[in-house]
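Lab meeting, item 3. Inverse folding demo.
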């Protein structure tokens, strides 16, 4: 039986819940809450079993005591909002939008308004609900301060097929990233597992023991005095993957206020850049329903173009 407390929820697992995964169990017990939301707050260690943190894969036992700190229902509270969307591709099965920097892909605890999902719920009568209303239509995500192309599923079956395509690495993504430093190599590949940081749960880090496989390819597109513009090809989709991988090899993304360095942050300030220089510029995949090839490209946002223009101007001056 669920007990409401000032700080959240607490209840004891009965025989019927024994053996179930905790994320599935809680989704079934708490009305109007999506599994993705439960998994999210598990990853933030807001859910404990017998006083200890667990993963979403934890199998419950009879008499386990589950406590949930700062619980907020998410699904039924997500409201449609009239927010403009830049739609670059659309049919009855899926859409692709160009996301602006500074807007969340989907609501998070404490931030339920002015997200892409709020905008999608206003613009479309039908969206996939596979991950719950708080992530309606969302197949993959972009960080708040990353701009570029984002695929949206219009129904559950299309969502399932797209998810499988991402898992099988059949969706080819290309990002533009301006990073600190110069490269001796013209291209490369970073293969290092990523997991949640043990020091700061809001951050990700390279974790050989607990991390999940992460693969990021890159190619040098343009070079400046203290920075380089890369085409980046993430084969996997771990949280903050590109930013963590590039920071680990001492080439942090310019403007990244989490994984950046004093040098990369100073350059961002000098260029007037107020967010990370990371843009999802290309998508290529076979349409899951029509089987036709879809290839899309999104030009760099204005603030990023301005940075490159300034770096090119500086480069020409230094060549004289």
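The presenter then showed the designed sequence:
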């Amino acid at each position: 039986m669920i007990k409401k407390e000032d700080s959240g929820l607490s209840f004891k697992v009965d025989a019927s819940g024994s053996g179930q995964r905790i994320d599935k169990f809680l989704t079934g017990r708490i009305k109007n809450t999506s599994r993705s939301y439960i998994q999210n707050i598990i990853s933030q260690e807001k859910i404990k079993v017998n006083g200890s943190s667990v993963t979403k894969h934890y199998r419950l036992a009879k008499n386990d005591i589950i406590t949930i700190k700062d619980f907020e229902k998410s699904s039924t509270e997500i409201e449609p909002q009239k927010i403009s969307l830049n739609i670059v591709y659309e049919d009855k099965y899926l859409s692709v939008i160009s996301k602006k920097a500074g807007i969340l892909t989907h609501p998070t605890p404490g931030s339920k308004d002015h997200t892409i999902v709020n905008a999608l719920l206003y613009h479309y009568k039908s969206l996939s609900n596979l991950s719950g209303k708080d992530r309606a239509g969302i197949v993959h995500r972009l960080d708040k301060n990353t701009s570029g192309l984002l695929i949206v599923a219009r129904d559950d079956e299309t969502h399932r097929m797209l998810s499988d395509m991402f898992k099988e690495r059949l969706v080819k993504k290309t990002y533009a990233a301006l990073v600190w430093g110069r490269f001796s190599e013209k291209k490369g590949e970073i293969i290092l597992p990523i997991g949640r940081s043990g020091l700061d749960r809001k951050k990700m880090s390279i974790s050989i023991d607990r991390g999940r496989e992460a693969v990021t390819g890159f190619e040098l597109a343009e070079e400046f005095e203290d920075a380089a513009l890369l085409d980046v090809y993430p084969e996997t989709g771990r949280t903050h993957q590109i930013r963590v991988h590039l920071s680990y090899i001492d080439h942090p993304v310019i403007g990244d206020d989490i994984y950046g360095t004093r040098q990369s942050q100073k350059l961002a300030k000098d260029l007037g850049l107020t967010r990370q220089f990371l843009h999802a510029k290309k998508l290529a995949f076979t349409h899951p329903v029509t089987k036709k090839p879809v290839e899309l490209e999104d030009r760099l946002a204005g603030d990023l173009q301005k940075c490159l223009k300034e770096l090119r101007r500086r480069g020409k001056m230094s060549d004289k």
